[in-house]
Structure formats: C-alpha cells, structure tokens
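Today's session is about reading a structure prediction critically. Students often jump straight to the picture, but the first step is always the sequence itself: look for stretches that repeat, for charged clusters, for runs of hydrophobic residues. Only then move on to the predicted structure, which in these notes is written as discrete structure tokens rather than atom positions. Here is the chain we will use throughout the hour.
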Amino acid sequence: MKVKNIIFDLGGVLIDWNPEYVYLDAFKGNRKKMEKFFDEVCTFDWNENQDAGYPLADATEDRIRLFPEQADLIRMYYGRWEEMLRGSISGTVSILKKLVNNNNYKVFALTNWSAETFPIALKRFDFLHWFEGIVVSGTERTRKPFPEIYETTLERYDLKASESIFIDDNERNIVAANLLGIQTIKFLNSNQLEKDLKAKEILL
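Below is the predicted structure for this chain, in token form.
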C-alpha cells in the first residue's frame, strides 16, 4: 500500500531529552547511584503516568510521601525538567524538512509527553510547527502503546492505517502500531532512518 502519511515520535527521534543531563551531576558522576534512583524512586513508569495526564505537582508530592529522604532529588525532576531537554537531533530534523517539503506526504507527530511541559518544547523547537498535527499523550490522557492514542491520531486527521508509517525508537510502541495495521520503522539513528525511508522509496 502506498504511503501517504508519515507519523513521527518526538523524544529520542527528533528531540534529545534525558534526565541524566541533570542527575548525573546531582549524583557527582556516580552513575550507579543515579540508576538506582531511577529504578526505585523517579522511575520510568512513574514518569509515563505524567505523560498520560497526571499532574506534575501531584506526582512529585506522591513520590515525596514515599521517599521523604529523597525530597530534593524528586523535586529536581520537574523543577529542572527544561535542563533535561538538550536539543534537536539534527539529522532527523533534516529528514523531516525533506518530507514536509514533499507534497506527496502529510506529516504528523504522536508523542508521549506531559501536557504541562510540551509548551516548553513548542517554544524552543521551530520544527514542531511544521507538522500538520501533533497528538500529545498528556492532552489525550492516554499514551503509547495503548491503541486508543493511535486510533485517535488516525481518526482526527482522517488517516488510513495502511497508508501511514510510524517512526518510533521504542519497540513496544512499534509493535502496538503494527497491530493496528500501521506500517512502522524502528528508529535507531538518523542515518538508519534515511536508509529505511529510501528503501521504501519515500526519500530519493
């Protein structure tokens, strides 16, 4: 089926966001202690709950009640969140620009991102305004890999799954899209993405 729509994930594909940029310094370079903190306190699952719409202030206080001795470090997560937003992934932005300038495709974004912090990204990254539409998990109060958010994306912009290709760096999210009939590319790096898009004759 001919591809007509390209749907990009943002974090890890177009935008370099990583809490290590703040916490490695906070832990004085001790990666083992930092990783223990992420495994036990400010976990991946905890952060994803905010991506699905849970308020940042409530999430912070919830964790402080569980780990009062870590209060300062917990407050740092969203208090210094903007410092974790390092910059754009330039190679992918170049690919995005080519696709946006190609009238054969419509280009969208589907991201797991807190509705409270996404406006910061919108102000910082001009290329976020190139998309025909962006679906933000925190606004929808659900997230990848739940099927509802993919279905919302398809329905909102009147896209056919079979004519759409979804680019994401998370295998779990790729599998979920495939189950709905959406074509996919798992993102590893910009060079690999360019090769895969050329193989599919989306890029020349």
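Discussion point for the tutorial: The chain has two domains: 5-16+87-199, 18-85.
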